[in-house]
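Before the break, one more example. Copy the sequence into your notebook; we will annotate it together after we see the structure.
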Amino acid sequence: MSALQDLIVAPHPDVAPLPAPVPPGVRVMRGVPYAEIEGARPLELDLWLPEGGHAPLVLFLHGGAWRRGRRDDMGPRTRQWSPGPFARIAAAGLAVACVDYRLSGEAVFPAQLDDVRTALHWLVLRSGELGIDVRRVVAWGESAGGHLASLLALTSAEPCLAAAVIWYGPADLALSPGPPESLLLGADPTADPGKAREASPVAHAHRDAPPFLLVHGENDSLVPRTHSQALAARLREAGAPVDLHLVPSADHGWHGISDNEFEAIFTSSLRFALHAVGEGGNTTS
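Here is what the structure looks like once it is written out:
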């Protein structure tokens, strides 16, 4: 594992920060089961719910090279935030569901995408009890979670998503094949190009795709910026709305930029999500 991967991976539970206090007006439900899979661990999600009900929903997917990671982790730059990033999103008026999915050591693709679709189906089923509006869903993911969020946004039939916010997500598994991609697919992408294509968001771009915000560090050493550039190009060719933002000096996990620069990325991503679901919202930190 590289030094950067050591920095961005979710910390061990022995030293991980404890959950930050929840601000007034936000309700949290942790560890809610959404699926039981025979022979596997139960899959769970955490919910951050704003006051008022009928809130649009952010479905958040964590990173970790499909191999590790935790559903409540938005990356290294948010781990010391209080209130945390999901509380901030909820305070702006959007519910958040942070979703488990099977890792590549547990199952190969498309199990991960199947899990995310199952979570969305569960949220639709229980939306009345939860007070969420599943006609206005934004998929938001970082790194491996950005890959899955892209696939969900491009392949979900019902409900159709309102938008996707993708931070440095792999988009073409043939662009930079390596151990994480091979573990995800169960084969090297060059040995099974058909499966690599099936698992690549660039292969699923289409005219009716929801609006995409792709944010990527120009100096990303783990998932090169060419992934987001390729997906943006495919979406534009298809006639779908896409906004590509390349961040100067940023490596993977937003390493290499200032706290103020990262705050601006988070705020602009939240503003994009709010606009996509027709909410003005409050994006102050």
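The mean pLDDT is 93. The chain is about 30% helix and 20% strand. Try to locate both features in your own notes.
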